[in-house]
UniProtKB/TrEMBL annotation:
The keyword Flavoprotein applies. This is FMN dependent NADH:quinone oxidoreductase. It comes from the Bacteria. Keywords: Flavoprotein, FMN, NAD, Oxidoreductase. The gene is azoR. GO terms for molecular function: electron transfer activity; FMN binding; oxidoreductase activity, acting on NAD(P)H as acceptor; oxidoreductase activity, acting on NAD(P)H, quinone or similar compound as acceptor. Binds 1 FMN per subunit. FMN binds at S9, S15, E16, S17, M94, Y95, N96, F97, T138, R139, G140, G141.
Length: 202
């Protein structure tokens, strides 16, 4: 099994979403036989999708300058990691009701027409199929199933767009509400992880 772990917190240390992603991957690889690739988007930030990147992507490969080819190669590397994975584990904290800029940059990198999705007469079709995705979602407040949870629709929409439809979520909320709330959130998240992994193994 090939596992790709994406840590999207802005913090390299002390991140709850990373802690949960680590725990999920450790249990997935309990027998030590999996190949695990970890991408820490704080320690290894990916460049944002700007005008320079767009120009490089829309220039035919044989016409790209060395600088443009190098920029596209950065995205190619992330796409290759996603394509090679059997399971993708994403640590996704909520920042200001949405995903982090780090995760958005990863999303922008792996969304490539003709590679990870394609347009058809009946609409777009995702090409990153046959993979399981587990997303560890962490929040300072309580947002699940409420009107302030604008993060979850974004995650579901993007992942489905590129073909990642077998997605399960682990929630850990209330980390800004005091020590008791944190303890409850962590205990609840641990139970969710066990349930999700039982389903993955089924």
């Amino acid at each position: 099994m090939n596992i790709l772990q994406i840590n999207s917190s802005a913090r390299s240390n002390g991140s709850e979403s990373t802690r949960l992603a680590d725990a999920i991957v450790a249990k997935l690889n309990a027998d030590g036989n999996a190949t695990v690739v970890r991408r820490d988007l704080a320690a290894q930030p990916h460049p944002v999708l700007d005008e320079t990147a767009l120009q490089a992507l829309f220039t035919p490969a044989e016409q790209r300058t060395p600088e443009q080819a190098a920029r596209v190669a950065l995205d190619d590397a992330l796409i290759a990691q996603a394509q090679a994975a059997d399971v993708i584990v994403i640590g996704a904290p909520m920042y200001n009701f949405g995903i982090t800029v780090q995760l958005k940059s990863w999303f922008d990198a792996i969304a490539r027409a003709g590679v990870t999705f394609k347009y058809t007469a009946t609409g777009p079709v995702g090409l990153l199929t046959g993979k399981k995705v587990i997303v560890a979602v962490t929040r300072g407040g309580m947002h699940k199933d409420g009107p302030t949870d604008t993060q979850l629709p974004h995650l579901k929409t993007f992942l489905g767009f590129v073909g990642l439809t077998d997605v399960q979520f682990v929630f850990s909320e209330g980390h800004g509400l005091g020590p008791d709330a944190v303890a409850r959130a962590r205990a609840d998240a641990d139970e969710q992880i066990n349930a999700v992994l039982a389903d993955v193994a089924a």
